[in-house]
């Protein structure tokens, strides 16, 4: 009786309050742990078990945490701002960071408007006063929004939504955003000004809606506040740190700024006696505890949005809004998928087959990868590039050391000194049997001559051996692997100077030999004696490269060919050695694809 095998489900950690609507999508497929309020140390202790981590703004996803997360594939931010996530560290580790770029935009914009009106009409103060039994009608006289200038810093999704609502109040709308979409701005009746100084001078209400980045950190400081009208009021529903809290406190005390409505703080929750806590206590400030996204609707939106992306990533698909990976249309990804497999196999075949010529530690070479036929029309070849880097490096990278993917492929290639030159060939492929060929060409000899000295057999990965009789032919020749996809299945159609179709799958014994009587029998009988079962065999004759590359066929010792044998299981090094000799073959390698 077959014993059922138990495959544990991937584990997902929910570190903050996330709406159950999205979590329901995860619970069938994954082991979902909801653990709120963990300290940084507690989180670090358990993170190694998880493949996905879902957070909001409170969890600090540091480089240290990410390094401790051995299995993590995705950090999902159930919201917009990813300033609490070390995206650079995640990228280096191949971890995808996703967010929900628009799920809480309306909530943040409405909260901004709520704060604007609360500040304009002294709602917080009035509420407190009346609850304390007072009736202070004249002290609490406010101002109207109608006819006032709303000055918006950052005319992105939230900024534009605020503008549209404020337009209904009859406000004059100005914005400063060097990267603003001017047609969207015009459609929302917003005038974009060219300097922050211009905006500040005009503002009756100033509202901030940029991300917290180097150019926006501390952008409203003492000098900027000094240029504003004393009747101006300031709103911040973006991020603490964009306004210098000490400078704002001084301006409110001095009466050079009339009031502020603030949702976000330099430290959250604010430490006692910090500038943030003094601002919260200030009578001219309406304060909220980072509530911009806290509506039922927004929380449902962001939860579903990021949980769907977690499902995609853990199922091996691409997410729709990764912060650190190129967004690629699902349709295009479907077209690319079989080619992604092909390119990865080509890279792996390259590294394994030529392993005696490359060295794990000094793996430095230059590759040209050429896409022909329908692949020339692709919007992006990023997944193919990533697949090539993965294929090239996986055979010489200890398992689990590095998860190479679309996120970090470029970085990894750069770190390993691999140069990949991607080309799209406009050449007519009508005469070829398949419409999309991919050719990988390693300019090994020209770019790695200095690295050759430290190439040694002992450094070859143990799963791979390439042995030679005599000098390798044409060391300075480019090494070429060509493949195509047919019926969604990858095929190799050329290996070096040899042309022949084979499926790059399983364990393959690749032998170069001079085509003479008895070679096939010799190899077959030796493998038979060693108990190696042969599943299939292909003979690849010389590719006619003369016209293409100016390289003559053969080397004067008769017609060469490649024998590609699909075998069961491993082939021992002694068996491979036994194949090489005057009776047998010139060169043999074993690859596992
Ligand atoms: N308080 C809360 O709960 C929430 C806060 N937010 C925050 O709101 C902010 C805006 O979010 P979105 O509108 O979704 O972002 P977005 O990316 O759509 O818009 C940001 C805008 O800022 C502009 N910008 C960038 N650097 C600038 C600079 N130096 N000067 C002027 N403009 C600059 C960009 O061109 C862009 O148009 C983010 O910081 C986000 O984290 C968003 C949702 C909820
Ligand atoms: O989405 C954002 O950027 C927010 O600031 C919302 O934060 P939160 O998810 O409410 O902790």
From TrEMBL:
<comment type="subunit">
    <text>Homotetramer.</text>
</comment>
<dbReference type="InterPro" id="IPR029753">
    <property type="entry name" value="D-isomer_DH_CS"/>
</dbReference>
<dbReference type="InterPro" id="IPR029752">
    <property type="entry name" value="D-isomer_DH_CS1"/>
</dbReference>
<keyword id="KW-0718">Serine biosynthesis</keyword>
<keyword id="KW-0597">Phosphoprotein</keyword>
<dbReference type="InterPro" id="IPR006140">
    <property type="entry name" value="D-isomer_DH_NAD-bd"/>
</dbReference>
<feature type="domain" description="D-isomer specific 2-hydroxyacid dehydrogenase catalytic">
    <location>
        <begin position="12"/>
        <end position="324"/>
    </location>
</feature>
<dbReference type="Pfam" id="PF19304">
    <property type="entry name" value="PGDH_inter"/>
</dbReference>
<protein>
    <recommendedName>
        <fullName>D-3-phosphoglycerate dehydrogenase</fullName>
        <ecNumber>1.1.1.95</ecNumber>
    </recommendedName>
</protein>
<feature type="compositionally biased region" description="Polar residues">
    <location>
        <begin position="456"/>
        <end position="465"/>
    </location>
</feature>
<keyword id="KW-0028">Amino-acid biosynthesis</keyword>
<dbReference type="InterPro" id="IPR045626">
    <property type="entry name" value="PGDH_ASB_dom"/>
</dbReference>
<dbReference type="InterPro" id="IPR045865">
    <property type="entry name" value="ACT-like_dom_sf"/>
</dbReference>
<dbReference type="InterPro" id="IPR036291">
    <property type="entry name" value="NAD(P)-bd_dom_sf"/>
</dbReference>
<keyword id="KW-0520">NAD</keyword>
<dbReference type="Pfam" id="PF00389">
    <property type="entry name" value="2-Hacid_dh"/>
</dbReference>
<keyword id="KW-0007">Acetylation</keyword>
<dbReference type="InterPro" id="IPR006139">
    <property type="entry name" value="D-isomer_2_OHA_DH_cat_dom"/>
</dbReference>
<dbReference type="InterPro" id="IPR006236">
    <property type="entry name" value="PGDH"/>
</dbReference>
<feature type="domain" description="D-3-phosphoglycerate dehydrogenase ASB">
    <location>
        <begin position="336"/>
        <end position="457"/>
    </location>
</feature>
<comment type="pathway">
    <text>Amino-acid biosynthesis; L-serine biosynthesis; L-serine from 3-phospho-D-glycerate: step 1/3.</text>
</comment>
<dbReference type="Pfam" id="PF02826">
    <property type="entry name" value="2-Hacid_dh_C"/>
</dbReference>
<comment type="similarity">
    <text>Belongs to the D-isomer specific 2-hydroxyacid dehydrogenase family.</text>
</comment>
<dbReference type="GO" id="GO:0051287">
    <property type="term" value="F:NAD binding"/>
</dbReference>
<feature type="domain" description="D-isomer specific 2-hydroxyacid dehydrogenase NAD-binding">
    <location>
        <begin position="113"/>
        <end position="292"/>
    </location>
</feature>
<dbReference type="GO" id="GO:0006564">
    <property type="term" value="P:L-serine biosynthetic process"/>
</dbReference>
<dbReference type="InterPro" id="IPR029009">
    <property type="entry name" value="ASB_dom_sf"/>
</dbReference>
<dbReference type="GO" id="GO:0004617">
    <property type="term" value="F:phosphoglycerate dehydrogenase activity"/>
</dbReference>
<keyword id="KW-0560">Oxidoreductase</keyword>
<feature type="region of interest" description="Disordered">
    <location>
        <begin position="448"/>
        <end position="478"/>
    </location>
</feature>
